[in-house]
Design a protein that fits this description.
Blueprint lengths: L1 H66 L7 H19 L2 E2 L2 E8 L6 E7 L8 E8 L2 E11 L4 E8 L4 H10 L2 E10 L3 E4 L3 E5 L1
Parallel strand pairs: 1-8
Antiparallel strand pairs: 2-3, 3-6, 4-5, 4-7, 5-6, 7-8, 7-9
Length: 203
């Protein structure tokens, strides 16, 4: 009788254990599935946020490219503004506006020498310096000459490139034949200014 009762109890306990194990396994499986689903959902949400951010960034970029008008620079106004800036700088420094002028630029018909001459029409000064900038395309040559005052104005010591001189040959090698452009920039303790650019041909 005791043996039969013990056997029944053992069987009942075993069945209970099996049922409890199966229930726990299902619960665990459900939790795992929920965890996997949650991770997937979080991943999808993150992807959607990233895509939305990229779309907004793209839209902003397209808007910027489309709506921004290219800046148009008025060359005349820019030149006037630059001259005004120079004028202010001269006034602040107490300098008078000089008026340099190229009086001759080219080759002498008889000698073939290249000559550049200039004067400062409104200045009587011997402290200044004449700087001639000669260009041909991207090539550039600079000549610095003394100022020579006379009765009415000031004259720059002329640039003379004698036909057979080394300086002539070196200059021709640097600039080459063609259409040269020269501009005079003058500055002294009392005044400064720039001439208009003058073109001349050199063979």
């Amino acid at each position: 009788m005791i043996g039969t009762t013990f056997l029944v109890a053992l069987i009942g306990f075993g069945a209970f254990g099996v049922i409890h194990y199966l229930n726990n396994r299902e619960a665990t499986k459900t939790d795992l599935n929920a965890s996997e689903n949650l991770s997937t959902a979080e991943y999808i949400v993150a992807e959607q946020k990233n895509e939305g951010a990229e779309e907004r960034k793209s839209d902003e970029g397209e808007k910027t490219d489309t709506d921004t008008e290219p800046e148009v620079v008025d060359l005349k106004e820019a030149a006037e503004a630059a001259e005004t800036k120079k004028e202010v700088a001269r006034n602040n420094a107490g300098l008078k506006v000089a008026e340099p002028k190229i009086t001759f630029a080219g080759a002498d018909e008889d000698s073939g020498n290249i000559i550049i001459a200039a004067e400062i029409t409104n200045v009587l000064d011997e402290s200044g310096e004449c700087t001639f900038e000669v260009t041909n395309g991207n090539a550039k040559k600079v000549f610095t000459q003394d100022i020579l005052p006379n009765a009415k104005n000031s004259v720059c010591d002329a640039v003379v490139l004698e036909k057979d001189s080394d300086e002539y040959k070196n200059t021709m090698s640097e600039l080459g034949a063609g259409e040269w452009t020269v501009q005079l920039k003058y500055k002294s303790n009392y005044s400064e200014g720039e001439s208009e650019k003058v073109k001349f041909k050199v063979n």
